[in-house]
């Protein structure tokens, strides 16, 4: 099973993934924990490029989109597909829904560009996606206690509001795949909510 986790910054994706990882391991299920952009040595290098604030020029929105998909192609071929073929559960911190939410809804790129990339370079979509939803300010406060901000984290609240509506758009169009979790709740409750969605798939 391929499970992805989405949301704006600081909503608790990493926290939930760690809890589910532990849960699967305790049940003796083979799990791969991975993330985007990144997940392979080469894709992690692309991630550094994408998140760095130390560029001498503004990264073009198309460049950002294409780098996301270059990293994704690498990740799919070298990590996700082999793990799924070996019967493992894949827990992926962000996947192509983030490209729609950030690059299309957030940056304003046309969904047709994304569709083209998905059709040609994404051979496997998640079986289930958890969208952790919380007011932007809440996630920002949680995440920013960590210190230095990356290139995305430097964006304004208005950008993240657009991103959030991008996730909402996907959830409304694909309610079967994308499940909204109320991320304002305690981590334990977010975890049990996720678990009950997974159990309903059995
Ligand atoms: N990006 C993109 O634009 N296009 C794409 O296609 C892809 C990605 C794939 C990097 O992602 C950036 O890449 C991302 C979008 C872009 N930029 N942004 N923003 P990332 O996932 O690495 O970065 P992130 O979203 O900023 O992740 P994060 O800040 O690490 O957030 P998180 O994993 O969702 O949260 P967390 O680390 O689990 O929790 C944050 C803090 O809150 C932490 O102290 C927790 O202990 C606490 N926490 C967690 N859950 C709770 C609850 N329920 N209550 C109270 N406190 C909590």
UniProtKB/TrEMBL annotation:
General function of this protein: Phosphorylation of dTMP to form dTDP in both de novo and salvage pathways of dTTP synthesis.
Q: Which GO terms describe its cellular component?
A: cytosol
Query: What organism does this protein naturally occur in?
Result: Acinetobacter gerneri DSM 14967 = CIP 107464 = MTCC 9824
Q: What is this protein called?
A: Thymidylate kinase
Keywords of this entry: ATP-binding, Kinase, Nucleotide biosynthesis, Nucleotide-binding, Transferase
What's its top-level EC category?
Answer: transferase
Lineage top rank: taxon:
Bacteria
Catalytic reaction list? dTMP + ATP = dTDP + ADP
E.C. designation(s): 2.7.4.9
A molecular function (GO) held by this record is:
ATP binding
One BP annotation, GO: dTDP biosynthetic process
A Pfam short name: Thymidylate_kin
Q: Where are the transmembrane segments?
A: none
Concerning its family, UniProt says: Belongs to the thymidylate kinase family.
> Could you say which residues bind ATP here?
7-14
Under the heading InterPro entries, the entry gives:
P-loop_NTPase, Thymidylate_kin-like_dom, Thymidylate_kin_CS, Thymidylate_kinase
Gene3D superfamilies tied to this protein: P-loop containing nucleotide triphosphate hydrolases
